[in-house]
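example protein:
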Amino acid sequence: MSNLKPNYFWQFLFVIGTLFTTKSYSQNCAIVINNVKHPTSCYASDGSITVTATDQPGNPCERTVKLLKDNVQIAEGQATLSVGNLSSGMYSVIAINGCGCSQVQTKEVFLNGGTSTKLTPYADKGSGFYQAKNVYVCRGGTVKLGTQPLGITGFTITGPNGFTSSSPQGSSYFTLTNVQPSQTGQYTIQYTNGYGCISETAIYLEVGALSVNAGQDQAACFGSSFTLTASGSGQATCKNTCSVGTDSLLVKWTLDQCNAQGATNQDSYTEFIPEFPNTGNCTEVDAGNIYRDKGEHSCTPIIGSYPDDVGMCIPSMESCDPLDYDSDYAIKFSVSLTPSQIGRLSKLTFYEQSPFNWITTNGSTGINNYNTKYLIRVYKNDILIFEENERTTERSWNLETFDFSSIEEFNIYEPSTFRFELRGYCVVENNGVMNGWELNDIRVYGGCCINNNVENPISYIWSNGATTSTIVVTPLETTTYTVSVVDCKGCVSSDEVKTTVYPLPVASITGSGEICFGDSAILTAQGGSSYHWSTGEVASTIEVKPAETTTYFVTVTSTDGCTSVASHQVIVHKLPTPVISGDFDLCIGESTTLSASGGLSYIWSNGSTTNTITITPTSTINISVTTTDNHGCQNATSVTIIVHPLPVPSIIGKSEICYGESTVLEADGGISYLWSTGETTKSIVVNPIINSTYSVTVTSEFGCVESTQKEIVVHALPIVSISGNSEICFGSNLELVATGGISYMWSTGQTSPAITVHPGIETSYSVTA
């Protein structure tokens, strides 16, 4: 706001013409002011004034005279008016026309009791001073509260909780640092001038209470996830704005009523009455006349427009420096809006020009010392909310538009008054007798809406970039996370939470990785303070005897309670399957070759270490072999070598026969037989004609073979003869005697050497010896 030039002092005594000290009223149709008594102080009300309105001599009537302050009538009388109990300030005296006087007459008088210094509240939140009655500051921020720079001393400020301070010499502001919600409240700034008059202004300071709690510090083991939840509170509440329907034409001043006939009308702006085309859904729209606090105006026709289209012309400020701006000479107009809930002013438009030549509605014309720039100021409830300098003027009519729709300060939530000030400046000397800036058709747009919603959003941002209130993190190491919350006022609060990450124990298992079936393995876990095996055991060392390849797990717990799992596979190798091949059924005296297979190396029960051995057992025996495979696993097998006895063959039969006889030889002692004759029956019949030896090979049920033999002696036949008669008589006996043998067998069945026979017929008798 450094380009504002404040009105530092109202330090003047107003003198109108000549102060009348005589009561001789010789002047016709005039206002005469006598007996001016100024108040004893700027806050006293003991001033007085006497006003007389003269008229044409001889008139029987008396003119009406009125006394006004700030456009409010405070007294009225006829001809002469004496008023007391007046305070300091500017008063207007109006004498009504009549009684021979054709025109209304006005005069002003200033009663000075020592004028207080006007104070305008200013604040600075870090981006420069601006006018403000209400200031919102975030917790912990810095704000300067004060007034416009006046270059004077003696300011004091009071505020909540007994706060009071005096500003440094030559400074008109106070600095509050690290503000807290407890400092919310109204701050009153006072100044006492040399007349003893006290001026004061106030600023309401609201300190945001936004805060955030990131929660308690947490600790967990490596690989764990942490759920961090931030809780924001105390955030500001921001009111919604109207999104649509706020661009209605609310007020316009056509300026067609412009009247500059005579000096009185040139100084008066009462003809510029507003029109209200639309309420824009507002409960009430009000506006006043366009006016200037000081200075005259003229009227200019709008060439080429509709009939009677008239604009207003006002003098410009010659300086090109906006700091020389004096608002008393600006064109001013105010618009008041009463919303049911929410409203805003959205736009201002008007036509302007500062032509090379001026022309008035009475036909006068001349060279214009034109101004090249203009400035604008907008106040909301007497607080400056918008200003712009260096606006370029045109030499012909030009439409100017100001869009306020995106400026927060133009939103309203309660009845509010916007005051606009326009002032041309930076005059180019063009050898004219006057300078003028011309305006026409001023319009103000806006409207109101119903929107009950208020907003108190709060947004989160974590140091890891997350934007939710709750986050899940898995830090690799101990980490401190910071969360910041932002509310709709832009305030920021931060907190942090520490996540301690305990390292996992380095679990390991030592022990056998390979065993043979049937063996045990010793497994030892390391790296923690307690252990829990997949077998259910809780000792650090366990013994296992798996029947097949098995993976064992151990959960190792550290002193921090962190766990880690290690695994160890015990490979169980199958035992080799040794096989002994060979002949396991022997007959006594036989040998057998045994071969072992199924491994890499062998050791027999007889001490041999080759895979093949030859043995000749004499009796049934057990023989075993132990084989070792490529894993070092061993297994044994055994076989029984049965040694069968040889069969005991025998030949039953005659050892002696007579020549020509046959005999049966019968073998025994086996289950199969092979005779030297080639026969394979158990019994054979032989008929040797000489002494002969017969052999038989007997095979037992076990396949064992043994042979035996038998000699048969063949005896020559005896030479038998029968002696006796070959003829006898019937009925006679005959003795027959056999010789040549030792025993005899007669055909009669008798066995004696000699027999007696009694054949009845011719009979042949034989004997076998």
In short: Residues 1-26 have pLDDT under 50 and may be disordered. The CA atoms of residues 56 and 100 lie 5 Å apart. The longest helix spans residues 262-267. The longest strand covers residues 437-449.
